[in-house]
Here is the input.
Amino acid sequence: MVTAVEWGRIRETLRFGQVFRGTVVKVPQPGAIGIFVDIGLPVGGFVDVLLLPEQEERRPPEGTVADFEVWWADDRRQVRLKPSDPRYLRADFAEFAARVRPGWPSGIGRPVPVRDPAGPDELAG
Here is the structure.
């Protein structure tokens, strides 16, 4: 576990859309929360189930090596990711992103800000 100071340093280097090659390391309760991804940083990566296809068989299983983009990073000391490969994205990703992250993809390349504009209530919608 990294300290808050270490996490702050890591976070300062992250940019929206930054691509990491990662390995899916854990798929807890398939369909419930998402997938954990090792992206080679001292903190883990995580893809929320809301970004993944509805059909579990289309989601990347443990051991899958793929590219993932920085979607968000907040106080959880975890890099929130979205799959780069459209096979692993929800079918209506463009509509979903327009609703919960209206500036996407124009924010790509910009630093991850301190507060997430889309809270849990918006993500559930």
Confidence is low (pLDDT under 50) at residues 116-125.
